[in-house]
Structures are given as C-alpha cells and as structure tokens.
Amino acid sequence: MSRIPPLKDNPAIGKLLVAVGVVILSLIVFTFLSLIMAVLVYNVKLDQLMDPLHNIKEPGILSSLTLMQTISSIGGFILPAFFLAFLMNENVFSYLRLNRLALGNSFVLIAIMILTLTPFINWLMELNGRLVLPQFMHGIEQWMRKSEDDNSQLTKYFLDMHSFKDVLFNLVMIALIPAIGEELLFRGVLQRILRELFNNHHVAIFVSAGLFSALHMQFFGFVPRMLLGVLFGYLLVWSGSLWLPILGHFINNGAAVVFTYLFQNQLSNIDPDKIGTESNQWIETIISGLIMIGIMLVIRKIEKKRRENELVNIEFES
Fold it and tell me: What are the distances in angstroms from CA 269 to CA 142, 147, 157, 273, 274?
C-alpha cells in the first residue's frame, strides 16, 4: 500500500504556512541544542555566546560558533526540507529534484560562470553598500550597518586560515553544508510551494530569492545575494535538477574560502574582496556580467534541447 502524504492535496497557502512553521520551530530547537552542546563540549559560558564578537578570542568561543553554525544549518535547513518533502509527496527525492542530474555541459558552464562572476557581484555589493535610508529611518540604518559590520567581523574570524586543513574544514562548513541546506529549503521546497501559490515560476523564483537573501540578515549585501538566488532558481527550472544550483552555490562559497586563503598566506596578491570594486576595473565588471548572461542563456538552450529529446524518446518508446 502506497503512502499518502498528508499535505499533498492541501492548498498552497496551507503548505507555505506549515513550511514556515516547521522551519522556525527547527531553527529554535536546533539553535538551543547547539548552544547546550557548545557549553558542554567547549566549557564556555552561555553569556559569552550571547555576545560572541566581544568574546571571540576567549578559549572555545570560535569553535563553539563553528559547532553552532553547523548544527543550525543541518537542523534548520536540511532536515526540515526532507521532512516537508515527506509531508508533500510520495517520493521525497523526486519532490526535491534530487533524482536527476543536469547535462554535464551545464555543470561545467555553471562552474565557469560562478568563478568569473566575482567582479560583477563585488560591484553590486559596493553599490548596495552605499544604500542610504531616509532621515526618519536613521536608527534602522544604524542598526543595519552595525549588524552588517558584526557579521563581517565574525566572517573574518571564520576565514582566518593557516593550513590546508583549515581550508578543507571551511569548505565543508561554509561552502558544502550551506549549499546543500539552503538550496534544499529555498529552491527545493519554498520555490516549489510559491510556484503553486502564484502559478508563475518567475514570481516564485524572485520571491524565494528575496527571502533567501533576507534570511542572511546582511542588508548591504541583499542585492547581490538575491541575484545569486535568482540565478539558482532559474537553473533549477531549466534543468529540473537541484544539483545544478547546489553546485553553483558550493562553488560561489568555496571560491571565497580558497581565494581568501591564498591571499592571506601570500600565495596570491589578489584580494577577492577588491575584485571589481576599483575604479579602473569597470571593463572586468562588464565582461563578468556579460559572461553571466551568456552562460545562463546557453544553459537554458541546452537543457531545453535535452528535455525535448527526452519527450521524443518517451513518445518513441510508447
């Protein structure tokens, strides 16, 4: 007897509310569990973890934050995504689009695109950072900038790498786990629900990308992060495979880890944060943006052709 998913035939708004509730509850539960584990494993005080930036150099604090981030990513994104897919479809892997691969050419092209996208993304980051809110929102702007600065400082501590072992560790913690977790939840589950809700995959892509960017609580990097979310959303729609956006997400985060390590250890004189932000780099920025557009169009074309060939094969076999 086949399993009947309890939410399969529910209206989209109901699925969305359940999804939001499950994610919020998971984040609360696993954040609490990660705090307890950090206190027990590293013998740190709870009040130190409540203000980590001011206690970052205390023994065990950075390791605690690493443990907490890993547990929260797995418990707050990966597990809820699989649980929600279980509630909504008989085949979890099919629902999450993990049951098929994109074409090999598409994987190569997305890798090239992400690696050449840095100048354009950094340029957008620079523009976004110049955001000035109206005077009556000055207090909100100050809070946003402080939050941005605090997150940037914590990221610098996480990316302080002195060995290849540090690089591998950060590739897992900063690149692999977030790439899998965030794509499973935002593209695999949320974008699908929003597509059903709005009956328009373009709206679903942009809304899920906006939520994806907002969740990071880095307001002066909202636009470039949302752009990445939009790119990943279209890659999923065109290929029908979540592995393509997962790869793009991993390469984006992983490249930041590797290039930062090379620059920190004087193995490269290229500061990854400066690429595309200098006044004399406008040509590189334009080329980066054009490469992005061109590769996305090529991927769309080859994946469309693949789908057409699959339909022809199905009709032939039937």
Answer: 33, 29, 20, 12, 11
Task: Give the span between the Cα atoms of 259 and 119, in whole angstroms.
Answer: 13
Residues of the chain predicted below pLDDT 70: 1, 279, 311-318
| pLDDT of 3 | 75
Which DSSP string do the residues of 189-200 spell out, in sequence order?
IIHHHHHHHHS-
Report the number of distinct structural domains present in the chain. 2
Structure tokens at 289: 């943006």
Rg of the chain over Cα atoms, rounded to whole angstroms, equals 21
The residue among 2, 5, 19 whose CA lies nearest residue 192 is 19
SS (H, E, C) 146-166: HHHHHHHHHHHHHCCCCCHHH
| The predicted structure's pLDDT at residue 194 | 96
Query: Do 126 and 266 fall into the same domain?
Result: yes
Contact predicate 119/275, CB 8 Å: yes
204 and 269 both lie in a single domain = yes
CB neighbours of residue 84 within 10 Å: 27
Report whether 111 contacts 251 (CB < 8 A).
Answer: yes
Residues 45 and 102 occupy one common structural domain: no
The range of the structural domain enclosing residue 90 comes to: 7-94
**Res 313: pLDDT:** 57
